Structure to design on (368 residues):
């Protein structure tokens, strides 16, 4: 008899529950995407919390039913405890904690972004460290060197908007439905990515010299550039005609930045195993671009959309690691902004040891 684990995700606008067996195989995964926000063009925190409250019991019941597991057979219950909308988080945390207490089994708080790192592993047993991790979601954009689970050396993160947030805001500017990411990707397929020369923020310094040593992202300037262009086109009533080209040109700028930064990280760390996770990793153009840029010698790990977008299975899988490790990394309650457990500063001197620990990357030349 395997000892299954239940994972619950309620950080934003998905109520999700999943059951994994002890080897990390998905026995069931139920995702309820809230549509109460659609008419507002973005997530309304209070409505999200109320909807989670209404859905959590039936979503968990459906996951257990689908897995053929009774509550008393569970080994542990995990929930995403940070970061996210506090009212939404509190529903998952309070519900799961009470359920674990009633059953007399461990409750495991999981950091949502650590969950995203475990997403690809649910489908590919090779998606394990060491790797350079690119996490791109609606709230975060992070570039990490991950020599082993639980050690997350932060190379860079966004200084303003997250990548997904930029997709959502630009989607709104273009009159596309929420969330903007999938809508922009679809519109971009019909457009010319060269039509508008939007900026590639942080890719180059003012004088034109490449920025070295810094892997931070910035997307708010790009969003403003699109807004200005849209305003100009609106005067001539041409936004509709140009929508696909605007979407394609914007997406191209985001891909250039994400892929450029990731490749720079690969060079700096000396490891060409790359994992991309979070909702934006569902973008096919991004995967294709990264795969091409990394080349046939390297590895790219990604998951299908069901394990890349917010889901309970990634939370359960990260919880299995945390239970084995015997530490929750300081997480103990719902928090809107707690940092990811195990986050450490990256230092360029670490390159020799990082490269040495990465299979197949030993022969890579040093970046000057
Ligand atoms: O990880 P996720 O499901 O939720 C958060 O943790 O935020 O990511 C959601 C984000 C949204 O901003 C959404 O627009 C974006 O992921 N997204 C995409 C695509 N699918 C979802 N962005 C670009 N292309 C997509 N295909
Ligand atoms: Zn997420």
């Amino acid at each position: 008899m395997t000892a299954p684990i239940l994972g619950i995700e309620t950080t934003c606008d998905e109520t999700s529950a999943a059951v994994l067996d002890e080897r990390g195989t998905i026995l069931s995964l139920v995702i309820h995407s809230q549509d109460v926000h659609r008419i507002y063009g973005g997530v309304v925190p209070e409505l999200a919390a109320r909807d989670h409250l209404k859905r959590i019991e039936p979503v968990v019941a459906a996951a257990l039913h689908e897995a053929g597991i009774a509550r008393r057979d569970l080994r542990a219950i995990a929930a995403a405890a940070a970061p996210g909308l506090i009212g939404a988080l509190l529903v998952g945390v309070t519900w799961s904690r009470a359920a674990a207490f009633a059953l007399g089994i461990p409750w495991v708080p999981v950091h949502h972004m650590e969950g995203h790192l475990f997403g690809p592993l649910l489908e590919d047993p090779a998606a394990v460290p060491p790797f350079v991790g690119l996490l791109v979601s609606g709230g975060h954009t992070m570039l990490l060197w991950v020599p082993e689970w639980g050690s997350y050396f932060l190379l860079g993160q966004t200084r303003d908007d997250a990548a997904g947030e930029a997709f959502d805001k630009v989607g709104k500017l273009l009159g596309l439905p929420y969330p903007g990411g999938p809508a922009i990707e679809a519109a971009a397929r019909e457009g010319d990515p060269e039509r508008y020369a939007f900026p590639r923020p942080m890719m180059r310094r003012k004088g034109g010299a490449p920025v070295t040593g810094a892997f931070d992202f910035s997307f708010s300037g790009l969003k403003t550039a699109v807004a200005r262009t849209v305003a100009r086109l609106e005067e001539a009533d041409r936004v509709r005609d140009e929508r696909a080209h605007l979407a394609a040109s914007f997406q191209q700028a985001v891909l250039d930045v994400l892929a450029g930064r990731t490749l720079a990280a690969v060079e700096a760390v000396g490891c060409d195993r790359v994992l991309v996770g979070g909702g934006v990793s569902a973008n096919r153009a991004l995967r294709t671009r990264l795969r091409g840029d990394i080349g046939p010698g390297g590895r790219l790990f990604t998951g299908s959309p069901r394990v890349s977008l917010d889901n309970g299975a990634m939370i359960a899988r990260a919880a299995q690691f945390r239970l084995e490790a015997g530490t929750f990394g300081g997480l103990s309650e719902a928090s809107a902004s707690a940092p990811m457990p195990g986050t450490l500063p990256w230092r360029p001197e670490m390159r020799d040891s990082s490269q040495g620990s990465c299979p197949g990357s030993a022969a890579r030349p040093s970046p000057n």
